Every structure is written in structure tokens, then in C-alpha cells.
């Protein structure tokens, strides 16, 4: 039910915002010097002479049936095949960024919690604060200058090989790694104060077993919650990152459609982003039941 409300709400909001955008898309297509006859003919051709709710219904029907076409000439070009080409690229970038973030944040957060108040804790949290403070639109160009131009280790842009994925995924995953490491530390500190951890230590288990097998496993629920919520943030951040690195994903497709006033492509792209976010949150709920038996019993 909530997933359906989220999808409908996103569709209504993006349609509202598109109607509030100043300027006439017909002027972008034909130019301001076009005759009124040509302007009205094109307005009817793209369906912009209809009321907003009629345009919304037409879009929803065509999107559901796969017949949605661009709002710009040539109108024969379908939108969903373009999304089908761009979506795997964005998911590839998002998953790579997520893996980088998890690979950095989990060891960093666990180490900081295990050595609370020490230099390790201070250094880990200092790195986390720096990661949150550095904006992506600055970090991306800096990585290009250092690793692509000065050192010539990695390509500047494009998506021809796996080496092209390194810089954008690091740019996108840095902020999440910083935030997730702080969340991991907080969850671990709370779990390490529980009685079952004291019992595990009293049984003579090794510090490694107490930390990872008992404490970390019980601290996973808040970490999974953050990962599920931050997936949407990664998709949103991918829009800027893809633009910086000329990555041919959904972000590039969306920005191009906005520049050209291709409203159907804008609506469809936002809808796919919303569906991906809803799907990931559903998978997060499923992961809860796999990680915590108490959730399984309650459900």
C-alpha cells in the first residue's frame, strides 16, 4: 500500500513541478519566431493542449503499456528502450559505490567502536567527518585532476571498461562511507553494552568472535536501515556524478531531457527512480527477517 502511494505521489509531484517550470516548451522546439499556426499544431501533436490530468492519464497508460514516446520530434522514438540502456549503467555505478562505502565504513566503524576513546577512534571519526564535509561536485573534478590528468592512472570519463567505473564510484561512495561509518560505530557501541556481549566475554570467547560474531550481527539492523534509505541518496547523487564523468546513465538521460523539455522522458525517468527506491526498501524489509530471527517470529 505504501509503495503504491509513493509511486502515485512521485508521479503527481513531478507533473506538478513540470507544469510550474517557467517558459513554453514549444518555444524550445520551434523557436520564438514560429508562427502561431505551427505552434498550435505542435502543441496538439505533443498533447500539451490537454488538461494536466488528461496528460497524466495518457502518460500513465503509455508508460504501463511500453508505448511511451518522447515529447520531442521525432515522436516515433520510444522512451523505455532509452531507459533500458541507461538503467543498467546507473545500477552498476550505484552498486559499485555501495560496495566501496560498505568496504570502507564497516571496518572503520567497528574499529572505532572496539577502541572507543583511543587514537584509532579519533582518526576514524575524523576521516568520517571529512568524507561528509567534502561535496561530490568538488571531489569528482579533484579526482579527475589527480588520478586522470596528473598521474594518468585512470580515464577521465566514459563507460567503456571497468577502469572508467573507479573514479565515479569512489566519488559517489565517499559520502555514504563517511555517514555509514558513524552509524556503524554508534550501533556497535550500543550493542557492546548489552548483557549477551558480557556473557560471551565471560565464556572466554576471543575478542574477534565477540566483536564480529555476536556484537556486529546484532548491530546489523540499523545499518541495513541506513543502507536501504541511502540507496535513494546514491541514485540522486548519481545524477551529478554522471554529469561530471560523462557516465551514460539515468542521470545523464534525465538532465538531457530537462534541458530539451522532453517531459515524457523526465516523468518516466523519475518514475523508474521511484520504483527502484521502493524495490530496495522492500528488499531491506526482507533482509531484516534474514538477519534477525525476532523479526521473523513477529511477522
Automatic annotation (TrEMBL):
GO cellular component, one term: plasma membrane
Main location per the UniProt record: membrane
Record field: transmembrane: 95-114, 126-150, 162-180, 219-240, 270-291
Membrane topology of the entry: Multi-pass membrane protein
Gene Ontology process terms (BP): transmembrane transport
ABC transmembrane type-1 domain residues: 87-284
InterPro entries from the UniProt entry: MetI-like, MetI-like_sf
Keyword field contains Glycoprotein: no
Annotated keywords: Cell membrane, Membrane, Transmembrane, Transmembrane helix, Transport
Record has Membrane as a keyword: yes
Localization terms from the record: Cell membrane
Similarity comment: family membership: Belongs to the binding-protein-dependent transport system permease family.
Protein name as catalogued: Peptide ABC transporter, permease protein
Gene source species: Hyalangium minutum
